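hey so i finally got around to running the thing on that chain from the lab meeting. sorry it took forever, my laptop kept dying and i had to restart like 3 times. anyway pasting the input first so we r on the same page abt which one it is
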Amino acid sequence: MHAEVAGSDGSHGQTERKTFRISTDEEIAAREADLDRANFYTSLGALLAAPASAEHCEALRNLPEIENPETPLELAWTLVRAAAYEYSVEQIDDEYHQLFIGVGRGVVVPYASWHLTGFLMEKPLGVLRADLRQLGFERADNVKESEDHIASLCQAMAAIITAEEIDLQTEQEFFNKHLAGWSGAFFTEVQAASCAGFYRAVANLGQSFIDVEKQYLGMTL
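ok and heres what got predicted. didnt touch it at all, straight out
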């Protein structure tokens, strides 16, 4: 919807016509949905970037309780909330290091290059870095992990969704190239790991969300 207002331009008594745009209800709802998606990516990225802190666990415990989950995603949130009650911060820290860090490497490798090629720091990382530069994103100096870490990719998706200058097609292409092809295998491996407890619930949440994203972005599951 467009509307026009008239205002004086201060010269020779002429009037300048100015236009402004009024968003429709559908557009407002779409922006709110995108904000929810970005917040979900941010939350998932935070859970995968480092062991959950006491403050993080407390925030998970304070999530609104869903008495009768109706979707896999709602059930996944319920399980993460329950896991925050079940596991101590020390247990979560030990589990995170065993799963994702280990001695040499953890039980599950959280990098795209590994899952796509069998090696770290391979071509998929170079392609990702080029795409991030083209989108105007730069790696922060204090970040130790490479950009193809699952947490970093979740954070990148959150930034892409909320960037007004990035269109949906570019968002779809980034998701398809850098997350859709390997994240499912990653989350499946975490859920199958014998040492996983808290992060089994997190991986279930991640898998459920990625499935929803594939549907939302028009991809075939």
